[in-house]
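re: ur question from yesterday

yeah so i grabbed the chain u mentioned. its 261 aa long if i counted rite. heres the sequnce exactly as i have it in my notes:
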Amino acid sequence: MRVRLRLFEFEDLPWFPTVIRAGLMDYLRFMISALGIYRPIAPLLAEGLRCTGQTHLLELGAGAGGGTETVWRALQAEGLRDTTITLTDLYPQPDAWADIAQRTAGAIGYEPASVNALSVPAQLRGFRTIFSAFHHFPPAAAQAMLHDAVRAGTGIGVFEGAGKHWRELLLAWTVLPVAQLLLTPFFRPFRLSRLFFTYLVPVIPLCTIWDGSVSLLRMYSPDELLALAHAADPAGLFVWQAGKKRHSWGPEVTYLIGWPK
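ran it thru and got these structure tokens back, copy pasting raw so excuse formatting
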């Protein structure tokens, strides 16, 4: 799929109701975690952490934290047993994050205040990551995010849980909505509002179909990611690589990762 369209996503809108946003984020967290979408990029992150001597990840645009626990456990399997993670977002999800923090005995923590990924506060340190969210940023903002990491002298990894194929768009219209209807009662933390806006007034499924489709159309290709990185780092201070990693059972992850030379 070569087309890239800048359509809107509901979760980007400041006025979008918090209860619906939480429903969308809960669904994404469940599916990304259950399918282990980001497990293939653990060796890339492990290499970045080892090259920079860091043991802490700072996750930007974390949403409900989908996939973070899977990545953390995969990094442990790579031998990085001291790795910790801090979740941040412009629209924090402390209820969902507290559940992850409890399950990981605090190894995955969170910043309860709003954090702008384009201008990360100096006190929030660590190798920066952003999962399933880089496509939300238009080119100027995406470049600014990468430049902020270069300015701070820390590594950054950008990961999108898709390979940008037409078949993925077809799945977003067919199989995934059915899965959402079947699995919603099992999402945690439990919310009556999620059931109401899924089954009685199906706003969450409809917004999920739209946002999922638009996410694919807004995604950057590896070549576009590298171009943004080089524009954000004109002095060539970082080592950059971009591409796709395939999961053992088929799905792809599109990535960009860089760290100081």
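noticed a couple things. Residues 18-35 form the longest helix (18 residues). also The longest strand covers residues 238-246.
anyway ttyl
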